[in-house]
Amino acid sequence: MSKQELQKKAYDHSGVTYEQSQKALNLQPSIYERIGKEEGFRQLSTLFYNRIFTDKSPSSTWFLNIFSSSTRGEAIENQYRFLVQTFGGPKLYQEIKGKYTRLVGRHANYPIGNRAAIQWVEQMIKAMEDHEVIREDEEMMQALTDYFQYTAHYIVAGMEYMRPDQVRILWNMS
């Protein structure tokens, strides 16, 4: 499958174009600056994973199981590092995980599909609404929402086309 086909599939499920998703990476000042640098992203990751790990509703139990291979602290740290690096800060994720983010490959061993992508985005939007800085900056809120919406569905679309040997190779490169 070509990159354009993956982008179309992500758009079909998310309603966000690749170009719209990229706005978050190009805002000036950067999201990294707007959110309060590392501390702002640590707060967002903490708000998000506190929601994930404490939501005991029947409709969310299956979703929490996706994260069962990580502790809350590990999950917060990975996401925090990724967000800092992605949105204009130092390469914290690269320090731990290597040069490439490989989002599709890094998520390939988890039982996620469009349902999980939708729930992930819903929880992230709630975390952003709880984040004092993000909720006060409409442009940043919209750009991050578009980025997360598109990226979650791009990951799912990409995983549908990975072979088992590709997953092993990507995990062994970490």
Report on the structure:
By secondary structure, this protein is mostly helical. The chain has one domain: Orthogonal Bundle (Globin-like). The protein has helices spanning 3-14, 18-26, 31-35, 37-54, 58-65, 72-86, 92-97, 103-107, 114-130, 132-135, 138-159, 164-172. Helix 4 packs antiparallel against helix 6 (72-86), helix 4 (37-54) crosses helix 9 (114-130) and helix 9 (114-130) packs antiparallel against helix 11. It is globular. The model is unreliable at 167-174 (pLDDT under 50).
List keywords for this structure.
single chain; 174 residues; mainly alpha; Globin-like; 75% helix; globular; disordered C terminus
Q: Helicity level, as a percent range?
A: over 70%
Distance between the termini: 24 Å
- The SSE string, one letter per element, is HHHHHHHHHHHH
Shape: globular
**Biggest sheet record:** none
Report low-confidence residues grouped into runs of 5 or more. Answer: 167-174
What is the name of the CATH class? Answer: Mainly Alpha
Number of strands: 0
CATH topology: Globin-like
CATH homologous superfamily heading: Globins
Number of helices: 12
Task: Kindly estimate the percentage of residues that lie in beta strands according to DSSP.
Answer: under 5%
Overall CATH architecture: Orthogonal Bundle
Q: Kindly provide the radius of gyration, computed on alpha-carbon positions and rounded to a whole number of angstroms.
A: 16 Å
